[in-house]
Amino acid sequence: MTIKVNTATLKQQLSHYLALAREGKDVLVTNHRRIIARVLSEEGKDGRLPLRQPTKDASVLQDVGGFGCAVDPVADLIRERGA
User: Fold this and answer.
1) Domain that holds residue 37
2) Which end of the chain offers a freer environment for a tag, N or C, measured as fewer CB atoms within 10 Å?
3) Is 80 within the bounds of a domain?
4) 56 found inside a domain
5) Ordered per-residue pLDDT tens for the chain, 83 residues
6) Residue pair 1/26 in contact by the 8 Å Cβ criterion
């Protein structure tokens, strides 16, 4: 069972919604009618959620690169602090 709650109500009644999660219900948190978070029930004996296998190999992170800065931001900060 899934329950939707906005952030203001969640703040006011946090214990109630945590109890619902403890019972196995998923609580969707909304802000301006958009889902922004999910409170899930515990899974397993130790209360940890199961690990998900990565969808891509970590080596693809090498291809990400920088953010397109024309100058080195660290050098720019050092030069600015020295002025």
Assistant:
1) 1-42
2) C
3) no
4) no
5) 889 999 999 999 999 999 998 888 889 999 999 999 999 876 655 556 677 888 888 777 666 666 666 777 788 888 888 86
6) yes
